[in-house]
C-alpha cells in the first residue's frame, strides 16, 4: 500500500479498532453507522487472517478437491474425471481469491466507510489511548472518546516438542499459502484445521499422515470424526488416532523431517504441519497498562465489554475473547458490540437481555460451524453430551441421509448421518449435526430452528422440497414422533 493511501486524522476519535480483519471491519462499520468517528489500526494486511491465510484461501483450495470427489460419486460424471487436479490452476485460483496478498482493495473499503486507517503496531497505553508504531519506528498517539475495540485475532499454538525449531514446521499459513505439493505431509492435530488440511493436501496428491491424540473433531458428535476418518482413509491418507509426537528431527534444511512417536516408532515426511490449536494475539498490545495480563484470553460480558476494566470503554471481539474461534461468530459479536458502542455513546438504553440488540446470546446457545472436509461436517448448538452435562432432559434422533431420496439423487450411494438433540421438556432443538456431501448449505435452517426455539410441532410444517437433501428434516421429525 502506498503512503498516500493511509489516512492521517487528528489523533482523537470516538472509537479505535485494533485489527482490520473481518471482525475489526464489522465493528468499525457499525460504529460509523452510528455516526461515530473511527480509527482502524492494522499491523499486517487489511483483511486479516481469514482473508489471506485461513477461511478464504483454504476454501478456495478445497473446492476443486471436493468438486472432483462429488463428480466421482455420480455415475456418468465419474467417467469424465480422467486426470489429476491441475495444481498450478488450483493455486492460481487461490491467489485470485486472496488478491495475491494485496490488501489495497480492503484498505480502500475502510476508507469508503469514512474510517481512518493507521498501519503499524497498535498498543494500548492506558485508558482510551493507543500508540501506533510504524515500521520506520515513528509513532502516532491516538485517543478514544468512547471505545477501544480489540480485534487482533489469534495465532497458532506451537507445542513444546524437542526439535521443533530445526523442523521448521508449517502452520495454517504455510498450509494455505504454499504453492508446492509435498510428496509426504504429516499433520499433527485432528481438529478442524487438521482435517481440512488433510483433505486438501491428500486431494492435491500429497501422501498425507494425520496424527491426533484424540478422536477427530472432538468438539462435535463422535460420528462426525468417525465418518471423516473413514473417508480420509479411503482416499489414501494414513490416519492415526491416540498417538503423540515426542520429537522432531531435520538436520538439514532440504532433508526430510523425522517424527518420533510416543510408541517409539518413527515417521518420515517432507513437511510437517502443526494444527494444535490457537493462542490469543494479545501478548504485546498493552494490556498491562490497564491491569490485564498480556497474552491472555479476554473475558467479556454479553456486549463484549472486557471485564475488570473500569469505565465501559474496552471491548474484545472475535478470537481474543475465546467464545468461538470462527470468523462468522466474531463478525456477529462485532456487529452487536458496534451497536452497543453507538447506544452507549448516545446515552440510549442498553438492550442487553437475552437475544436483545446488544447481547451476543448466540455465543452460548447457537454457534454454527462447518468443516469443508469430504464429507462435510456441520453443527449448531449443543451436542448430546453437552446438553446432558448442562442438565437438559434430552432425546437424540439419528438417521442416515440415504433415507431421503434427494440425498440419493445428489450422490450415488450417499454416505452421511444426521442427529437432532431434542429438549424433551420444551420440545425444541438444542443442537443439530449433519455429516455428508454438500450439507453445509443445510446448516442455516438448523441454526434458525435452534435460535428461534421453534417447537417441533410447528417445525414439522416446514416442508422440504422434493427431491432435495433437505428432505432429511422430514424423516428426522417423523422418527421423533414415532418414538
UniProtKB/TrEMBL annotation:
Pfam families: Pyr_redox_2 (PF07992), Pyr_redox_dim (PF02852)
Alphabetical UniProt keywords: FAD, Flavoprotein, NAD
Transmembrane segments: none
Cofactors: FAD
Domain Pyridine nucleotide-disulphide oxidoreductase dimerisation, residue spans: 367-472
This protein's record includes keyword Flavoprotein: yes
Domain FAD/NAD(P)-binding, first and last residues per copy: 13-328
Family: Belongs to the class-I pyridine nucleotide-disulfide oxidoreductase family.
Name of the protein in its database record: NAD(P)/FAD-dependent oxidoreductase
Species of origin: Streptomyces yaanensis
